[in-house]
Amino acid sequence: MNNKPLKYAFWFFLAALIIIIVARKMDNQILLFPFWLKSVLYLIALPIAYYFIKKWAIFGVQDESNKNMHVAVNGLCTILLAFVFFLLMKMPINIAIIQQSKQHEIFTETCPITFYSVGFKNKQRKHITFTFQNKDIRMKVKPSTLDKIKSLSSSQKNIQLQLRKSIFGTYCVEDYSIQ
Q1: Pairing assessment for the beta strands 158-165 and 127-132 based on DSSP bridges
Q2: pLDDT of the residue at 2
Q3: What residue segments make up the domains of the chain, in order of their start?
């Protein structure tokens, strides 16, 4: 194992964590991000990550007895690093989508909520699923919004979205409320 790259591991993990948090926050604002674009970005990120994992050689093969384990660990590291690179490449696209949406007018769309967490054990699950343009969308919501959904007595719960249309057939959520 090569220890030289490990001295930067803390800073790398800190930067990766910041990238993941910022990217996830942006993703919650954008609806219908194209799958083909996600696939292309990840396919670009994968060889870049593979190159860096090979270059850093943190988990290099010292002997033949552990070769399979080293290949598996390097493969896992490549996939995780590719995910961070994917999010890093997706952030400027998300910023462009958000900026482009500001040129369009806000419109309101009411969508039926198809799923929300009813358990009180896990307070971390603050997601709802709703149907928008015949597609199920999962969105993180505020805990107060989830409490409001649970308190409604009607069987059909809806989310009212204030949206702006943007590029690539995406929509940006400006605000939402529960009905």
Answers
A1: unpaired
A2: 52
A3: 5-101, 107-178
Tell me 32's DSSP state.
-
Contacts for 51-57: CB closer than 8 Å, 24+ residues apart: 52/81, 53/77, 53/78, 53/81, 56/2, 56/5, 57/2, 57/5
Give per-residue burial for 22-50: e unless 16+ CB within 10 Å, then b: ebeebbebbbebeeeeeeebbeebbebbb
E runs forming strands in 2-157: 30-31, 107-116, 127-132, 135-140
Dig out the tokens for 171 from the structure: 């929509």
Angle at 168 between CA 165 and CA 171, to 5 degrees: 30
DSSP 3-state assignment of 57? coil
User: Helix, strand or coil for residue 18?
Assistant: helix
Domain 107-178 bears CATH identifier 2.40.50:
yes
Choose among 162, 59, 48, 160: nearest CA to 113: 160
Give tens-digit pLDDT for 76-132. 888 999 999 999 999 999 999 999 999 999 999 999 998 887 655 555 567 889 999
Give the pLDDT confidence score for residue 153 in this predicted structure: 78
